[in-house]
Description:
single chain, mainly beta, two-stranded antiparallel sheet, about 0% helix, about 50% strand
Amino acid sequence: PPATSTTASTNARVTLAPLMLRSAPAMEAEPILVIPHGAVVTLTREGAENGYVTVDYGGVRGWAYADLLG
């Protein structure tokens, strides 16, 4: 399917499933919000740990599980 993103940023990623934005790179970390399937997030490149990466979703920053980003 065609990309719905209007950004040409190489840091843009699309969620492959509903994805929890977390406060830290761990399953036990406090969830901030749920990013819906097909949403565009931006990699902030601030960190990568335990399979999680730092992302910005609509101005909210947190940790997302990298395997669910396409």
